[in-house]
Amino acid sequence: MLLGLTAVLVPSLFQGMLTLVANPFALDWVGFRQALGGDTHAGLRWTLMLVLSLNISVGGFDLSTADFANSRIGFIGFVTLVTILTVGLTMLNHVAAFLKIVTAAMILLAVVLSYALLVSLITNLLVRLALQIKDH
């Protein structure tokens, strides 16, 4: 959801992320920074992105113990599939393109999850500060 919101609300950031992972083995940070410029209505878009990110990151998706237990089956299947695919492509000598795609996807995932973590940490800090001020 956060990646989709980024694509819709802050297309310059999304384009920068795609530029960053175009060659995942040599990240293009200069291209990333260059892509961030030129966004129209950037203040409004970033504000809306931040509000929606807060709703998603902080208060929207609490998983139950049963959810985590059921995700184990999917995780085992996913790891098995990736392992079989990697072994098969390695044997056919076509693993380079697969590794590039997987690496790019993992970098995008790491960027989005780092953003969500940052939003959560800042929100947590602000709430704790507000509670400290209220108590004194």
Topology overview:
Elements: H1 2-9, H2 11-20, H3 29-35, H4 42-57, H5 65-91, H6 95-135
Helix pairs in contact: 1-2, 1-4, 2-3, 4-6, 5-6
Counted beta strands: 0
Overall residue-averaged pLDDT value: 85
Please report which band the strand proportion falls in: under 5%, 5-15%, 15-25%, 25-35%, 35-45% or over 45%: under 5%
The proportion of residues forming helix, as a percent range, comes to over 70%
Biggest beta-sheet profile: none
Computed Rg: 19 Å
Oligomer: single chain
Helices and strands, in order, run as HHHHHH
Identify low-pLDDT runs: none
Count, helices: 6
Structural category: mainly alpha
Shape: flat
First-residue to last-residue Cα separation: 39 Å
Provide structural commentary.
- With 136 residues, this protein is mainly alpha-helical.
- It is 80% helix and 0% strand.
- It contains 6 helices and no strands.
- The chain has helices at 2-9, 11-20, 29-35, 42-57, 65-91, 95-135.
- The mean pLDDT is 85.
Spell out the key features of this protein.
136 residues; 6 helices; mainly alpha; single chain
Tell me briefly what this model is:
With 136 residues, this protein is mostly helical. It has helices at residues 2-9, 11-20, 29-35, 42-57, 65-91, 95-135.
